[in-house]
TrEMBL record:
PANTHER family: SENSOR HISTIDINE KINASE YPDA. It holds the Pfam family His_kinase. GO terms for molecular function: phosphorelay sensor kinase activity. Residues 1-18 form the signal peptide. Keywords: Coiled coil, Membrane, Signal, Transmembrane, Transmembrane helix. It comes from the Bacteria. This is Signal transduction histidine kinase internal region domain-containing protein. One of its GO terms (cellular component) is membrane. Residues 424-467 form a coiled coil. Residues 509-587 form the Signal transduction histidine kinase internal region domain.
Length: 716
């Protein structure tokens, strides 16, 4: 029965896919011009690339069967989509440029991108040739590709690389190929993670989550969540890592992309091993292997077997550990750019050291050094020196062991490592012998003599400095004092004006709240009275609970300069529930905040959004239209935190006509106050926050969209 159900589900999935394909094919065939055929084909590929990368690639390879002639922009779209499919699907295959009609300038651009994709450096000569054609790269897509390939030029500085990444992002966001922006955000985040700037790495992945969700890039969204999980795992924040990975797993269920599922299971296996849930860890690793075998992804298989081996090694099951290490080794040797092979060689060295096979351990350790050195990875080399010193000590090569210890200690000092003294102490205990003690004493004596010399020189220098020190201090203090007086005089009037303006705005804010609260309380009391008259105890109790909690939140946070985003969400939610009950569920609302990682650490001005939600309900006449809706969204955009409030009400024009006979002073005052608050924040935090109000449906002049942007502030 289970087999029958499985076959039925597979057949149903195939039928749905076939139906989707046939509808696109029919639209392409019925198109009246080649341009319309191309547009239909591009739309088909764009949708398919986020669901089934393997099938999408087969359609791209056979594009001539659907569109006999394709434009240069269309060709570039297909090639870049093919590369993104290769990344998402774990195929690591590149398109054959000869199969496409590509002009000379685009051929150079794509050639550079292909080198980046394969982790190859672009030579100065190659880059000069590409740059000489850069005047052809005027559109956002080509500009973003040009800047991203520029990050792969040989010997480029880290500062320059960061600037290029940001330029690439700026242009990619305006590209019609939406997956480019998401892909570059992911690459920039990985770059920050490699440099151990984890806060920036997570921030760019969160931007990728918001962007992918907004533009329905489901596969890209899953990849961003996986990378966030990896970063938290690396920081040993296993709970946060597991949360993001499980979200990715839920989203990936509808995708036919086995490589992505393999990545999720592999990372969940790592998390569970760190949580010491070994059975669950092995189960996830096994699921990961099945997914990677389906797409024949050797890199994924190599890493998963390596991780399984590590779990068995930590449990002292050395035979199983060695077996999985060897399987990992076989897969690593089947592809180039196998950076992870260095770590595997190190794991072999640890294993054979524990088995007292010292020569074999040293052999693998030297191979690890070679791989790390070739890839410019100095920190792993330094960490492995500790094991090398232990091997040399066991082999009786004490002088060599001590020399390695000194190199290890010197490198750690340069990186300000906190564990240096602990490991030196461990090695000192390990290397106790007459030769070792003699060497240590000689070193200490030499260091003492050098220290005495330094102290004598320092003492002489101090005597010389003290003669003029008093006069120098007096001069410096005098200069600073007079400079401070000048600055105080110049800024005094300006500060007084700013303080006066701020006091006026604070008084306006207090006045608005004093107007808002009685007005809202009066309506709320009317609703409660209505429930009581109707003897509706359930609704009256529910209304009172929400009302009392909302009033408490407003009173507690009313006078604060900033409150947490979490508190603001609670105020908005309770306010909307009360309004919905008041209008007897004649409208609905949505608050989209699930992709903000930690709302408790983000600070915003209080009561910023509520006046505009009130306008949406009251002036948008949501209770009088069919399917009235209020939607509140939020996102982080570089250094701004952005709220968007939109409704499908009667629109601003109709509302203005209706309010000619009523008092609109409260609404106007809310807008003016918000603009003044944002202006003050912009001055204080040197930012470009704004308030923007526009029609949601421009053609029909219905609905309203309010965008509020304030500085992005985190708790310290």
């Amino acid at each position: 029965m289970k087999c029958f159900c499985l076959i039925l589900l597979l057949m149903l999935s195939f039928c749905v896919q076939a139906h989707s394909d046939s509808s696109y094919i029919k639209a392409i065939e019925n198109a009246s011009s080649n341009e319309e055929k191309e547009d239909g084909f591009i739309e088909w590929i764009d949708v398919l690339s986020q669901k089934n990368t393997k099938h999408c690639d087969s359609i791209i390879r056979n594009y001539k069967a659907y569109v006999p002639e394709i434009s240069q922009d269309g060709t570039l779209f297909l090639i870049i989509t093919f590369l993104n499919n290769s990344r998402l699907g774990g195929f690591y295959t590149i398109p054959q440029i000869a199969d496409y009609n590509v002009n000379a300038s685009d051929r150079l651009l794509i050639g550079g991108i292909l080198k980046c994709f394969q982790f190859e450096a672009i030579s100065k000569k190659e880059y000069e040739l590409i740059t000489s054609n850069s005047h052809h790269y005027k559109d956002p897509t080509r500009k973003s590709l040009y800047y991203i390939l520029s990050t792969c030029v040989e010997n480029i500085s880290e500062t320059k690389k960061t600037i290029l990444f940001k330029k690439a992002l700026r242009h990619a966001k305006r590209s019609s190929l939406k997956s480019i922006y998401s892909t570059i955000l992911n690459a920039f985040s990985i770059y920050h993670a490699e440099n151990e700037d984890f806060e920036e790495a997570i921030l760019y992945q969160q931007k990728g989550v918001s962007y992918s969700r907004e533009h329905e890039l489901k596969a890209n969204l899953v990849v961003h969540l996986i990378e966030i999980g990896k970063i938290h795992s690396r920081l040993n924040q296993t709970t946060k890592s597991e949360y993001n990975l499980n979200k990715a797993l839920d989203l990936s269920k509808d995708l036919k992309i086995d490589f992505i599922k393999g990545e999720i299971y592999n990372e969940l296996g790592i998390v569970k091993s760190k949580q010491n849930e070994i059975k669950q860890s092995i189960k996830f690793f096994q699921q990961s292997l099945l997914s990677f075998y389906k797409v024949n992804n050797h890199k994924g298989l190599a890493n998963t077997h390596k991780n399984i081996g590590r779990v068995f090694y930590n449990r002292n099951e050395l035979d199983l550990a060695e077996k999985n290490y060897k399987l990992s080794y076989e897969f690593f040797n089947e592809f180039e750019n196998n950076v992870g092979l260095g770590e595997l060689e190190f794991f072999f060295a640890e294993l054979y050291y524990n088995r007292k096979k010292l020569s074999l351990a040293e052999k693998h350790l030297k191979e690890a050094f070679k791989h790390w050195s070739d890839n410019g990875l100095l920190i792993p080399i330094n960490e492995a020196q500790f094991l090398w010193a232990k091997i040399k000590n066991k082999k009786g090569e004490y002088e060599k062991a001590y020399q390695i210890l000194e190199d290890y200690s010197e490198f750690n000092d340069s990186l300000h490592r906190l564990e240096t003294s602990k490991r030196i102490a461990e090695l000192s205990e390990m290397f106790k012998s007459e030769q070792k003690e003699r060497k240590i004493l000689e070193q200490e004596k030499q260091l003492e003599e050098e220290l005495i010399q330094k102290m004598l020189i320092k003492s002489k220098l101090e005597n010389l400095r003290q003669k003029n020190q008093f006069y120098i201090i007096i001069i410096v203090i005098s200069i600073l004092f007079f400079a401070a007086i000048i600055l105080l005089i110049r800024n005094k009037n300006k500060q007084e004006q700013l303080k006066k303006k701020q006091r006026e705005i604070e008084l306006q804010q207090a006045l608005l709240r004093s107007q808002m609260n009685p007005h809202f309380i009066f309506n709320a009391m009317s609703v409660i009275q209505s429930y009581i008259y109707d003897e509706d105890a359930k609704n009256s109790s529910k209304f009172l609970i929400h009302f009392s909690k909302l009033m408490r939140l407003i009173l507690e946070n009313n006078t604060k300069e900033f409150i947490s985003l979490e508190k603001e969400f609670e105020i908005i939610h309770r306010y909307l529930i009360l309004q919905k009950m008041r209008f007897e569920d004649r409208f609905s609302f949505t608050i989209n905040n699930e992709f903000i990682a930690d709302s408790s650490s983000i600070l915003i001005p209080p009561m910023l959004v509520q006046p505009f939600i009130e306008n949406a309900i009251e002036h948008g006449s949501l209770d009088t239209i069919e399917d009235g809706k209020v939607e509140v969204n939020c996102e982080i955009e570089e250094d701004l935190f952005i709220f968007t409030i939109q409704d499908n009400g009667v629109g601003r024009s109709a509302s203005a006509a209706k309010q000619k006979v009523s008092n609109n002073e409260h609404s106007s005052m809310a807008i003016n106050l918000t603009e003044n608050r944002i202006a003050l924040l912009n001055k204080k935090y040197k930012n470009n926050g704004f308030l923007k109000i526009e029609n949601l449906n421009v053609e029909q002049a219905t609905g309203t969209k309010v965008i509020i942007a304030t500085p992005f502030i985190r708790k310290i």
